[in-house]
Amino acid sequence: MSHFLKGRRIAYGRIISFLLIAVIVICVGSLAIRLKKIYNGEITANIPDPEKYPVMGVDVSRYQGNIDWAVLESQDVKFAFIKATEGSSFQDICFAKNWEEVKKTNIYAGAYHFFSFESSGETQAQNFIDTVGELDGNLPPVVDFEFYGDYADKHLSKKETRQILNALLEKLEEYYQVKPIIYITTKTYCYYILGGGYEDYPIWMRDTYMEPLTRWNFWQYSDQGKLDGYDGIQSDQTEVYIDLNVYHDSYENFLEEFSLPARDFKINLSDTQEELA
Q1: Most buried among 30, 148, 249, 253, using CB within 10 Å?
Q2: Which positions are annotated as active-site residues?
């Protein structure tokens, strides 16, 4: 019996090794094809193909200042993630106005929370719930999970960080009855998300260099987009840029995935959707 089990383990090991090699070959091959297209000038590394990814969106906070949502809508913006909260006590000063004004358009809105390594997940979730209230058919809540300050160099342990993140996600899901979207960078993905049991969560990936190689539902491809419809005026500075994003599939699948009603979008006022510096 022991020889039989040993033989089975060897066979399973070979199968797993073969599958891993196959996955690596496929990934390397796909990357090589994409790099060749970039080299030949057929595609730009960080600009999505509008035919492949027709659902465009933005994300905003107080940094965009005063926003004319109708003007943004006219530039083919179909969804927007709006900063609501940060940590356990901070609220974005522009959230309430943006949350009300975007309802006057056909843009699908979502609210996002900036994750804090310094307070409990439960109190962070409560801050979001108290600030945003009900979603009323909008996109799921978003947890913006990225490094900041000293945490960029001094990472908390996986166990400690995942405890905070899981408590935050679980409380939001319990309240809103939908899985939150997790916004991640390559670094937070590698340090905490990969292998952490987050396979069922929609992923919003930031990569301003090229299309993400990992699974993603939303891709933030530029933090230096320029659109009409915001003045960027704040008390201490003026922001000229806006973050640009795309959904990973068709408009129809976008509606189906998030149980959204179809809407009639305004005709573009300009042929130019964006201008990258």
Answers
A1: 249
A2: 59, 146
